[in-house]
């Protein structure tokens, strides 16, 4: 009571002090609540990134920690460059032409208004620099070689995995969500069945699929030979090993994308379908003009998450094939792991980690730029 | 439409339903075959598996393979390691993230405009790419092959803070304000009011953290190199290279079943919460 009386008669000084006190008490409380998280987060999430940058500038031997020496950017040069490098138009021509298709595609998207003009411009510029320019660089015919050819082959395998797995796992996830959307007991059971494989750990996945794919004892070849096919040596054929890994990964993770698409479908306003029904639009028309546009945001998110996840592939190949046969499934994280803990080159491994980090950063950055309705 | 046409139309619709039911059931069955197969092999005697490995129904079913898990090898120890690490990581994540989320959602303080983006920046850091420097951090403290090394890097989850902040922001303020007038401290408000009200978010985040921690492979592989400190995930992986494959397939599959049992149970009980957690966590909306 008396508080109020004072506040009415002498509003300025006391209430100002009080407000100041309240605010600083809020700040102290806030930092007390934040402290445990911030400490752990800074030490184990943020500091390692800085440490990686620092290490990547050193020749940093795991076994002889004292002998590390500053070598500037030489780890990066070793990673990305080679001896006797040249540039020409034909090198990787098909891939570069596919990459250059980014330019008309982004131009089209900008005209349709589904991408900002500035973004489309930068994207096209990046495509020109990368595909017309940088990808033409390679070791020359006479005596040219990469300093670390394994880096490029394992990076190439990673890209291959990303390109094979992303459309497949996103597309199948979407198809499953469309087929299983709706209420009802049976649909719920199907969703459970298709999602169940997601909860297994990578080593259970490889345990099952490693045997499932075996040509002599596996259940897949038993099934295929029932249909009259020869046993297929999935994991020991350099042509088939990566597709087999993609297949196992599809089975393992597609349920995750299905769940995201199902959530996206729930967000579409049901009255749109009712209105379309009244206007006499068929199922196909509704799908094209309501479902697909309604899922645009979800799709973008799923694609980005899938690309990021696919770039981090490691466990499946490391356990099932160790990168073989003939290095055909060796991926970037395996190369980082082996450079660090088999060859003991921590500095070099850090440089490659940052390379991977940079790629994933760019991918998730595009997620922000590509969604125009972002609030 | 005549009466016969109507019944024909109805019949066709019924037929369509039956066909899609059969197709989906077949697809779901094929999808589950690898899992059924693992269970079947784990219940089949190893002698039989030397000749037949493709039956989906165990031939001469036995529990011998499961008994073998406790007699031979370190699997029970790895299982225990995983339980300890996963439980502490999950509880720790929930505590740290909800406390930080409460500060961001409800308290006004200097530096908030910088700190929140600082935490969100962590979403951009891919854990799988940063294991080399992280290895060095723990090497300096000589903490490798300890539970601490397996737990600490996983507890600070920026995504968890983000989810908790969004959720707590959406809770109406009136109950808190009433408690504040009664003179309740911040901690009481957080512990007695905010936490009970955020059980849905905590459940989703908790299940998600549990699964990811249990299944974590690369970091335990790097940090826990002594056999006794393997988790069930890295332990099971280590068996796949050198186990006498032809003779011990059943025992190996029994270990696989055991390694997935906690997650399968959790999944069957909390399926709805897990699915919501994925939708919320990834959508960030």
Write the layout of secondary structure elements.
The complex is a heterodimer of chains A (375) and B (285).
Chain A: H1 2-9, H2 11-55, E1 58-59, E2 69-70, H3 74-80, E3 82-83, E4 85-87, H4 93-100, H5 102-112, H6 117-133, E5 137-139, E6 145-146, H7 149-180, H8 185-196, H9 202-212, H10 219-226, H11 241-266, H12 270-278, H13 283-294, H14 296-311, H15 315-320, H16 332-341, H17 346-370
Antiparallel strand pairs in A: 1-2, 3-6, 4-5
Chain B: H1 3-42, H2 46-49, H3 64-71, H4 75-106, H5 112-121, H6 131-140, H7 147-155, H8 158-169, H9 174-181, H10 186-197, H11 199-215, H12 218-223, H13 232-242, H14 249-283
Helix pairs in contact in B: 1-14, 3-14, 4-7, 4-8, 4-11, 4-13, 9-10, 11-14, 13-14
Describe what this molecule looks like in 3D.
Chain A has 375 residues and is mainly alpha-helical. Chain A folds into three domains: 39 residues; 65 residues; 223 residues, MetI-like (MetI-like fold, Orthogonal Bundle). Chain A is 70% helix and 4% strand. Chain A has 17 helices and six strands. In chain A, helix 8 runs antiparallel to helix 11. Chain A starts with a helix and ends in a 5-residue tail after the last helix. Chain B has 285 residues and is an all-alpha fold. In chain B, helix 1 packs across helix 14 and helix 4 packs across helix 8. The longest helix of chain B has 40 residues. Helices cover 75% and strands 0% of the residues of chain B. Chain B has 14 helices and no strands. Chain B folds into two domains: 63 residues, no CATH class; 170 residues, Orthogonal Bundle (MetI-like fold), CATH 1.10.3720. Chain B starts with a helix and ends with a helix. The chains are: A mainly alpha (375), B mainly alpha (285). At the A-B interface, helix 2, helix 8, helix 9, helix 11 and helix 14 of A face helix 1, helix 4, helix 5, helix 6 and helix 7 of B.
